[in-house]
Amino acid sequence: MYENPSIVLSPSIPPDIADRLRPLGSLGVMKYKVDAGARVYVCSENDLIDAAAINRLPDTLGLIAVAGMTTHYIALETARARGIKVSNIPKHSRDIATSLKANITAFFDRGIPLNPV
């Protein structure tokens, strides 16, 4: 399967979603500062992820997983230029935590999230 990867959560992610992601690996909570070694940053639609924030992310980070549908607050071109994938939750999804978990699991297993942007 996959190693015990580092997943960093924005403080805006509710505890019940964090609990559902815990089986995927070690979790940390940080806003805009992501330690080296982290592979995934989980944010909500309330988090502004501009070019400056993306450029501060470590080279190990490969996925920004959005706990929501919209991504207009993320500097997508900057993320792409850095080789960072971005995923979101499709509007037909009934359970944000399950969709997030599926995106992150697919990224760990195949290098591509289930719902890429």
Description of the structure:
The structure is a single chain. With 117 residues, this protein is α/β, with parallel strands linked by helices. The chain has a single domain, classed as 3-Layer(aba) Sandwich (Rossmann fold), CATH 3.40.50. Helix content is 28%, strand content 18%. The chain has helices at 15-21, 51-55, 76-81, 96-110; strands spanning 6-9, 26-29, 38-43, 63-66, 85-87. Strands 2-1-3-4-5 form a 5-stranded parallel sheet. Strand 4 (63-66), helix 3 and strand 5 (85-87) form a beta-alpha-beta unit. Helix 1 packs parallel to helix 4. The radius of gyration is 12 Å and the shape is globular.
Spell out the key features of this protein:
117 residues; alpha/beta; Rossmann fold; 5-stranded parallel β-sheet; 4 helices
- Residue stretches low in confidence (pLDDT < 50, at least 5 long) are none
Q: Class in CATH?
A: Alpha Beta
Secondary-structure-based class equals: alpha/beta
For this structure, the quaternary state is single chain
Distance between the termini: 24 Å
- The CATH homologous superfamily is called NAD(P)-binding Rossmann-like Domain
Helical content class: 25-40%
- Name the strands of the widest sheet in spatial order: 2-1-3-4-5
How do the helices and strands follow one another from N- to C-terminus?
EHEEHEHEH
| Beta-strand content bin | 15-25%
Kindly provide the radius of gyration, computed on alpha-carbon positions and rounded to a whole number of angstroms.
12 Å
Principal-axis shape: globular
Mean pLDDT: 91
Q: What CATH architecture would you give?
A: 3-Layer(aba) Sandwich
Based on DSSP secondary structure assignment, what is the total number of beta strands?
A: 5
- The figure for the number of domains is 1
Instruction: Count every helix, treating DSSP H or I runs of 4 or more residues as helices.
Output: 4
Largest sheet: 5 strands, parallel
Can you tell me the CATH topology? Rossmann fold
